[in-house]
Amino acid sequence: METFPLGGWNLRQPATIKDVARHAKCGVATVSRVLNNTGPASADTRERVLAAVKELQFEFSEVGRSLQSSTTRTIGCVVPSLANPVYADAVQGVQETFHEAGYQTLLVCTNYDSEVESQAIRTLMAKQVDGFVLTVSDALSSQGLRSIQNREVPHCLLFNTAPRDEQSWAVDDHSAALRVVDEFVEMDHVHLGFLALKFKTSDRARQRYEGFIEGCFRNKLERPALLEIEEDTQDLHILLADFLKENPSVTGIFASNDILALATIRSLRAIGLRVPNDISVVGFDGIQVGEMVDPSLATIVTDPRMLGHGAAQTVLSVINKSELPAQPDPEFSFNFRHGGSLSPLTAERKGDEKITAFSTPNQTAQ
Amino acid sequence: METFPLGGWNLRQPATIKDVARHAKCGVATVSRVLNNTGPASADTRERVLAAVKELQFEFSEVGRSLQSSTTRTIGCVVPSLANPVYADAVQGVQETFHEAGYQTLLVCTNYDSEVESQAIRTLMAKQVDGFVLTVSDALSSQGLRSIQNREVPHCLLFNTAPRDEQSWAVDDHSAALRVVDEFVEMDHVHLGFLALKFKTSDRARQRYEGFIEGCFRNKLERPALLEIEEDTQDLHILLADFLKENPSVTGIFASNDILALATIRSLRAIGLRVPNDISVVGFDGIQVGEMVDPSLATIVTDPRMLGHGAAQTVLSVINKSELPAQPDPEFSFNFRHGGSLSPLTAERKGDEKITAFSTPNQTAQ
DNA sequence: CATTTTCGCTGAAATCTCTTCATAAATCTA
DNA sequence: TAGATTTATGAAGAGATTTCAGCGAAAATG
Predict the structure, then answer these.
(1) On chain D, which bases lie within 7 A of the protein's CB atoms?
(2) Fewer C-beta neighbours within 10 Å, C or N terminus of chain B?
(3) What percent of chain A stands above pLDDT 90?
(4) Which residues touch strand D (CB under 7 A)?
């Protein structure tokens, strides 16, 4: 084994393939071939290369590789937020699947801002990601999604119901909402309300609302009252109080996601209403917390991790031009979980047209 | 405005700077100068370049740029899991901060596996990330962390207490654990237990345990009983039953994180014990759910988002060679939140040396 | 008025790291 | 010795930045 006058290799500047070639007294091409096992090399040369690699702690630069192969082994993942465990779980699933396949995940949280969303997508495309898994605010109008389609980058939607010709892993929001109405009806509720983030920030909420309306129609209920709120609403209890003042007959509220449902329950409590005695609440998503709170949350249960996994698999299939993974039947992509937050309509509220208790809380939400 | 015979630019192959130069009838250098505002250009040329850029929908390839500038505007972020909201929130903070600064975040979840951890770090270094924010399983022995130090890549630990010469944003686990003991003592508890994931997967848990032991010592309590469990434990109620059989005098359990604490409460219930009547439980982290469950969780409250933000700021400062951001006083990096899961020792259990109720549950954890 | 200086603009060429392709050199067979 | 193998190598190319030298034209100088 030959030794070189090693004066402490500067590790700050990692060794390049040229350095290795110089040390091994051969051409860079040879180094490449030896290390990638992509062509012949004499035992002697091979050994010298390997020794040089070890000594210099050489590792290929992925950047150089990417430039030449125009492939980055990197996937862009765009979701609204990690504060909602639904997305956190989904991202976990996405990341796991890609990791196993040797891809890294570039994560962006848009905070429900479609401006951030399209900007982020542009940046990710400039970084040459090999694919996308994304939850956009509105699949039909998303500027970012359109440019992904134009460039024909492999991608799959997550949670967004797929527009035509698009791949997507999502819950069947429409059917799920129908189911929620049925559950309310089962409990004798007649006057329902729907609570959601502003629809422009989430097409899922809109789908659920439309399903909810149709469900009410099918069950011959009146059109549900609607309360749309901003993402950063701090005074939900006030909005709810106003809402119930305008719609005093409402006995059941369907919140478009569990976080919102839990916040609703707390806010209702803050304005002196009991759940489920005065008002029943049903959520959407089935986050684990829902089972641990009191009253437990009646909700649609979904499997975000599985969805993330599926979306990632789909993207991998598109990349590898292999067969797309089978999706679960959309009709059965969810379950309804009963919980203490939804109970039969009490006798006293059955004929009742107005809610009595309205003690204004002097505590401020923080 | 001149027009070119555009036969449908193939958007699948994005335009390069060369294409732009050809269309603008100038050299690539000029295009670069115009677009980066990095040198002079006549008004005429500038206009032609801009027109070509628009027509071709040109965007710089970050890969080409990275190769030349040896900077990627990408940060590696390594955490154990997103299933724990503590990490999800922290990552959200990290991602937000870097996004504002124009960096993208490459996320890896290790699932508490130090093998995955060091492998991931190697890959990220090969991808030439400009910095790291990471929570390693053990800051002292982490192979990955060591190689980051060797290569002198800007980085900052998150949640891990910093070894010497390391930057880190973390809760003062030791002090927090002392505080927990004080709170138990305040409630007359004398025999305590500690529940944690296997220490090799989390040095945080170990720090908390050591603080807990010292707290017991200072308060002249006996050494706390220890129950270490695997990450994927499914039968916690059985382990707990055995644990309490061996340590029948234990009236208070400190769980090393909130998720574990909540699971503990459920498991205790499953084996017929009431919380807090039979056993008090205190958690660590202060996840939001803790306030919504029944009984509410007594716990150490931290601010993961803020920690993530701080760690990201620190990395940015190192990269920009600017002043490091001020950290909050470690002594005040947490708060104790009272909750229903911790109550004064009942008279009946005060002298009691054994727990009576031990109905074995016939339900299996799933 | 002729000549030099200056200065704004410009494009060719080198560089960054890696892979592939074609070619050259060395070895072995017939 | 010609031809077929086996090895080894240089050069080109992937997309961008940057240095450097050149080219005019205008200004300054003698």
Answers:
(1) 6-11, 13-20
(2) C
(3) 76
(4) A 25-30, 33, 39-42, 44-46, 64, 67-68, 70; B 13, 16-18, 28-29, 32-33, 35-36, 38-39, 59-61, 63-65, 67-69
> For B156 and D13, how far is CA from C1' in angstroms?
39
Closest among A218, A124, A215 to A177, alpha carbons compared = A215
Contact criterion met (CB < 8 Å) for A63 and B63: yes
Amino acid residing at A76? G
Sign of CA dihedral A284, A287, A291, A295: negative
Tens digit of pLDDT at every position of chain B (366 positions): 333 444 444 456 789 999 999 999 999 999 999 999 988 888 999 999 999 999 999 999 999 999 999 999 999 999 999 999 999 999 999 999 999 999 999 999 999 999 999 999 999 999 999 999 999 999 999 999 999 999 999 999 999 999 888 999 999 999 999 999 999 999 999 999 999 999 998 999 999 999 999 999 999 999 999 999 998 888 999 999 999 999 999 999 999 999 999 999 999 999 999 999 999 999 999 999 898 888 999 999 999 999 999 999 999 999 999 999 998 887 789 999 999 999 998 777 776 555 444 444 444 333
> DSSP assignment, residue B107?
E
Exposed, middle or buried: residue A259 (CB in 10 Å: 0-12, 13-18, 19+)?
buried
Contact residues on chain B for A263, CB-CB shorter than 8 A: none
Alpha carbon distance, N-terminus to C-terminus of chain A: 69
- Asked whether the beta carbons of residue B61 and residue A124 sit closer than 8 angstroms, the reply is no
What pTM does this model have?
A: 0.90
Closest B-chain CA to A124:
B104
For residues A113 and A231, give the distance between their C-alpha atoms in angstroms, rounded to a whole number. 10
Distance from C-alpha of A131 to C-alpha of A110, rounded to nearest angstrom: 18
SS3 A335: strand
Q: What share of chain B is helix, strand, coil (3-state, %, to 5)?
A: 45, 15, 40
Beta-carbon-side half-sphere exposure of residue B130 (alpha carbons within 13 Å):
23
Structure tokens at B347: 């008279």
Query: Gap from A2 CA to C26 C1', in Å?
Result: 24
Chain center to CA of B188: 34
- Distance from residue B64's CA to nucleotide C8's C1', rounded to whole Å: 29
CA-based end-to-end distance of chain B: 69
- Which residues on neighbouring strands pair with residue A280, listed in sequence order? A252
Give SS3 for B169: strand
Instruction: Note the pLDDT tens digit of each residue in A307-338.
Output: 999 999 999 999 999 999 998 888 889 999 99
Closest CA to B38 of B80, B69, B11: B69
Q: Do A107 and B109 touch (CB under 8 A)?
A: no
Which of these, A147, A169, A165, lies nearest to A313 by C-alpha position?
A169
Nearest nucleotide relative to B126: CA against C1': C17
- Check the CA dihedral A113-A117-A120-A122 and report its sign: negative
- Count CB neighbours of B117 within 10 A: 26
Other C-beta atoms lying within 10 Å of the C-beta of residue A100: 10
- The partner residues of A106 in beta bridges, in order of sequence, read A76, B106
Instruction: Check CB contact under 8 Å for B289 and A294.
Output: no
Q: Is the CB of A29 less than 7 A from some atom of nucleic acid strand C?
A: yes
Helix axes B114-126 and B143-151, enclosed angle (nearest 10): 20
From B86, which residue of chain A is nearest by alpha-carbon distance? A83
User: How distant is C1' of D23 from CA of B39, in Å?
Assistant: 17
